[in-house]
């Protein structure tokens, strides 16, 4: 059996990454890698500081590596990543003006067989410490949009949940024939 494929779901806050990653994992019998930032905020009761951004990026990578190893052991074909190191780099840029994580994050992005770039067209909903509102959402989306055009195998996902799921499923099915 071929190595499990990493599928990245990326987007600003409140764009439906977790919901869609879970739905895709159920549809394709895959694994979900949770968002390291959400876990950090839940465990620490605060958002990360600038000095913690690089470690947070590395936690996301380690979780992805562990999920790939687990998927390989279980004979699963897909691992769906509820965000990516690139989002940590974007947040570091947006909140701290720190662009130092981009080279590493962009290099790591080549790991993904497919990137699903979620549009900020769902209603914004407050959800604990990591959501700052519609303005922050638009700024983060714009930064992601600047970084993703050069990436291969990127599909934009927008619209209501059912449409998002249909487009995402078709994109993942298409990745089976895409080689990098």
Number of helices: 7
CATH class equals Alpha Beta
Helix content: 40-55%
Count of all domains: 1
What is the terminal-to-terminal distance?
18 Å
Based on the structure, what is the oligomeric state of the protein chains? single chain
State which percent range the strand residues make up. 5-15%
For the record, the CATH architecture stands as 3-Layer(aba) Sandwich
Low-confidence stretches: none
Run of helices and strands: EHEHHEHHEHEH
Shape: globular
Overall radius of gyration: 15 Å
CATH topology: Rossmann fold
Major sheet: arrangement of strands: 2-3-1-4-5
* Secondary-structure-derived class: alpha/beta
Roughly what is the average pLDDT, rounded to an integer? 88
Would you kindly provide a written description of the structure presented here, covering whatever features stand out?
There is one protein chain. The chain is an alpha/beta fold and 180 residues long. The protein has one domain: 3-Layer(aba) Sandwich (Rossmann fold), CATH 3.40.50.300. It is 51% helix and 13% strand. The protein contains seven helices and five strands, in the order βαβααβααβαβα. Strands 2-3-1-4-5 form a five-stranded parallel sheet, with helices on both faces. α1 (17-28) crosses α7 and α4 crosses α6 (134-147). The protein is globular, with a radius of gyration of 15 Å. The protein starts with a strand and ends in a 5-residue tail after the last helix. The mean pLDDT is 88.
């Amino acid at each position: 059996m071929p190595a499990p494929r990493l599928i990245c779901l990326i987007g600003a806050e409140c764009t439906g990454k977790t919901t869609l990653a879970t739905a895709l994992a159920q549809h394709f019998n895959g694994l979900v890698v949770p968002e390291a930032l959400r876990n950090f905020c839940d465990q620490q009761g605060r958002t990360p500081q600038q000095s913690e951004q690089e470690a947070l990026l590395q936690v996301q990578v380690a979780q992805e590596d562990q999920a790939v190893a687990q998927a390989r052991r279980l004979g699963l074909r897909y691992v769906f990543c509820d965000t990516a190191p690139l989002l940590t780099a974007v947040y570091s840029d947006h909140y701290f003006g720190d662009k130092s994580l981009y080279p590493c994050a962009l290099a790591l992005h080549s790991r993904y067989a497919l990137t699903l770039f979620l549009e900020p067209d769902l209603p914004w909903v407050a959800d604990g410490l990591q959501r700052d509102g519609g303005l922050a959402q638009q700024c983060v989306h714009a930064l992601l949009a600047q970084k993703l055009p050069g990436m291969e195998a990127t599909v934009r996902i927008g619209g209501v949940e059912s449409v998002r799921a249909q487009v995402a499923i078709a994109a993942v099915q298409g990745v089976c024939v895409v080689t990098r």
